[in-house]
């Protein structure tokens, strides 16, 4: 059989199978060949490019193209987008999406570092109780004592995760901020605080929210009121574009030189970068500059966000 005859036969067999819906047994009978040979011919037709199988998954996964572009632009390991519109609030959808992601990637004996805020709290609230993880530890990576926003503090969020999964929650007995850089140094040397931070920086996974400019930040607004005018001035000069783990960052994702950062009790950015999988959960127009900075500074390598935020991040030159 010549090449042209062979190609013609492959096309005929492929047309019967894919276009007409014929069974392989019927095709074998028509051409007086074995059924296994029909299967080989169909495979050969695909190899030669005579048949192209396209999976149209736009309805099942409408954001795949968007996610792939974000991954390439910011050199991320994974991006998961969710819808911006809908009956539920954006923070709720992000929390549900991130909770499903964590349920997929957390393994027995993992340690998960947890920041504070509305996003990570929503993740914890939606973390499936079917995932029993008795050997997993949830460890706070920021301080969390005081009366302000108690339900959003890292200690509380870790407890929620543990309650839903049977895991262990570690507590950080330290405030969010202290009065001076000197006081922070003393606190950081306390064995019970140092131990928790050491566990946090050795985690397998970190879960963090990403804040916008301090004026928009849910968690920092209350604490700024208790500090000096110097801090307020520093944060209003345009250098700080967002925060991650209470660390205020500039547009390059670097630690901003400000009084707040010298007082905050939080895992430092270099230690955060060493955690293998850092999952950032954030979305909304007020967070775009902060998210972009975190991605630029390679502070997270997994991003869970919404469609509009994702498109805005792609538009930034």
Please supply descriptive tags for the structure shown above:
single chain, 317 residues, alpha/beta, nine-stranded mixed beta sheet, 15 helices, 46% helix
Q: Nutshell version of this structure?
A:
The protein is α/β, with parallel strands linked by helices.
Structural class: alpha/beta
Average predicted local confidence, pLDDT? 87
- Taken as a percent bin, the fraction of beta residues is 5-15%
**How many DSSP E strands?**
9
* pLDDT < 50 stretches: none
Rg measurement, Å: 26 Å
Measured as a percent range, the helix fraction is 40-55%
Q: Choose one word for the global shape.
A: elongated
- The DSSP helix count reads 15
> CA-to-CA gap between the ends?
57 Å
Give the ordered list of helices and strands: HHHHEHEHEHEHHEHHEEHHEHEH
Reported for the largest beta sheet, the result is: 9 strands, mixed
């Amino acid at each position: 059989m010549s090449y042209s005859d062979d190609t013609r036969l492959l096309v005929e067999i492929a047309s019967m199978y894919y276009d007409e819906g014929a069974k392989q047994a019927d095709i074998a009978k028509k051409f007086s060949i074995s059924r296994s040979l029909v299967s080989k011919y169909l495979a050969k037709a695909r190899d030669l490019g005579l048949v192209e199988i396209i999976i149209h998954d736009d309805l099942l996964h409408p954001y795949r193209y968007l996610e792939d572009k974000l991954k390439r632009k910011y050199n991320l390991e994974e991006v998961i987008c969710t819808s911006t519109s809908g009956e539920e609030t954006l923070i709720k959808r992000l929390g549900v999406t991130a909770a499903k992601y964590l349920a997929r990637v957390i393994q027995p004996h993992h340690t998960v570092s947890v920041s504070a805020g509305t996003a990570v709290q929503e993740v914890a609230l939606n973390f499936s109780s079917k995932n029993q993880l008795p050997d997993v530890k949830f460890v706070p990576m920021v301080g969390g004592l005081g009366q302000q926003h108690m339900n959003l503090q890292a200690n509380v969020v870790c407890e929620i995760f543990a309650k839903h999964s049977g895991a262990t929650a570690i507590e950080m007995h330290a405030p969010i901020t202290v009065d001076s850089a000197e006081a922070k140094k003393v606190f950081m040397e306390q064995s019970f605080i140092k131990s928790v931070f050491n566990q946090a920086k050795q985690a397998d996974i970190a879960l963090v929210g990403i804040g916008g400019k301090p004026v928009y930040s849910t968690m920092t607004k209350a604490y700024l009121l208790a500090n000096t005018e110097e801090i307020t001035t520093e944060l209003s000069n345009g250098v700080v574009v967002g925060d991650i783990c209470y660390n205020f960052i500039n547009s390059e994702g670097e630690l901003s030189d400000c009084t707040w950062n010298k007082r905050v009790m939080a895992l430092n950015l270099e230690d955060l970068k060493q955690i293998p999988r850092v999952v950032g959960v954030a979305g909304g127009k007020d967070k775009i500059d902060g998210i972009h900075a975190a991605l630029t500074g390679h502070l997270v390598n997994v991003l869970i966000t919404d469609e509009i935020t994702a498109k805005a991040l792609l538009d930034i030159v």
